[in-house]
Amino acid sequence: MLEVLKAEPDVEQQYCHTHGGILRSTHWLIYSSDKNQIAESTDWNEYDWFSEPEFLAFHAREWWQREV
């Protein structure tokens, strides 16, 4: 997922985050080439910013699927 975000920097991408079973949530992610950080939102309005190591520490081993 991070490779895809970095390949399309500064473009908001929509992902489905699977929490197990049928429980899912939608997240909007942006890789900022200026900040070299990843922005994550679940409500379109407010983003939380993470460095790549922070994002991986928080979301490692989780299931994500890009939505078109």
What is the helix fraction of residues, given as a range? Answer: 10-25%
> What is the total tally of β strands?
5
Distance between the terminal alpha carbons, to the nearest Å?
14 Å
Beta content: over 45%
**Overall outline:** globular
Indicate the structural class.
alpha+beta
Low-confidence stretches: none
Integer count of domains: 1
* C-alpha-based Rg, rounded: 11 Å
Mean pLDDT level: 91
User: Major beta sheet, specifics?
Assistant: 5 strands, antiparallel
Question: Order of strands across the biggest sheet?
Answer: 4-3-2-1-5
SSE pattern, N- to C-terminal: HEEEEHE
Task: Describe the fold and architecture.
It is a single chain. By secondary structure, this protein is α+β, with helices and mostly antiparallel strands. The chain has helices at residues 2-7, 52-59, and strands at residues 13-20, 23-32, 37-41, 48-50, 63-67. The protein has a five-stranded antiparallel beta sheet. The protein is globular and about 35 Å long. The mean pLDDT is 91.
